[in-house]
């Protein structure tokens, strides 16, 4: 699956980035992440020993915003994964004449790739991670990594 994500990110001008996944830490050693079988609540320990970037300290969030991000993440448990979102993102980037059709598809929170789930949780809490005018849901794991590495 990670190879497909790398290809999807390349199609979206994110290059072959080393960041292929994103999740939301929800406390008590748990995270919520989009998986091929749908968004799941999982132990953070599944990533022990694997490199990760953290947003802690990158964004000044209030306690209420942090709680809202966590509540949003928990609310998305069970939402189906959609690899088709990568192809919709690529179609947008390549300026294929399907804009209005794919904009609504990708913006839908009825299906999400991992980075869309993270971005949507922040949006639900009133926090906009991107200020570049991108359409809702148009975010890859590499896009999130670029924010953290900037």
| Helix/strand order, N-terminal first | HEEEHHHHH
Uncertain runs: none
Span from first to last CA?
27 Å
| Percent strand | 5-15%
Please give a structural write-up:
This protein has 150 residues and is mainly alpha-helical. The chain is built from six helices and three strands; from the N terminus they run H-E-E-E-H-H-H-H-H. Helix 2 crosses helix 5.
Summarize the structure.
The chain is mainly α. The protein contains six helices and three strands. The longest helix has 13 residues, at 63-75.
Keywords:
single chain, 150 residues, mainly alpha, 3-stranded antiparallel beta sheet, 6 helices, 3 strands, 8% strand, globular
Topology:
Layout: H1 2-11, E1 24-27, E2 30-33, E3 40-43, H2 63-75, H3 84-93, H4 99-107, H5 114-124, H6 141-149
Antiparallel strand pairs: 1-2, 2-3
Helix pairs in contact: 1-3, 2-5, 3-4
């Amino acid at each position: 699956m990670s190879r497909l994500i790398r290809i999807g990110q390349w199609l979206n001008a994110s290059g072959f980035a080393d960041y292929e996944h994103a999740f939301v830490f929800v406390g008590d050693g748990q995270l919520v992440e989009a998986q091929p079988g749908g968004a799941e609540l999982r132990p953070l320990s599944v990533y022990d020993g694997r490199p990760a970037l953290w947003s802690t300290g990158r964004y000044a969030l209030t306690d209420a915003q942090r709680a809202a991000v966590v509540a949003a993440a928990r609310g998305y448990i069970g939402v189906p994964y959609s690899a088709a979102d990568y192809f919709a993102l690529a179609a947008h980037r390549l300026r294929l004449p399907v804009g209005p059709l794919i904009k609504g598809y990708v913006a839908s929170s009825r299906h999400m790739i991992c980075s869309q789930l993270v971005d949507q949780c922040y949006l639900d809490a009133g926090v906009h991670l991107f200020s570049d005018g991108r359409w809702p849901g148009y975010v890859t794991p590499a896009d999130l990594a670029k924010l953290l590495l900037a």
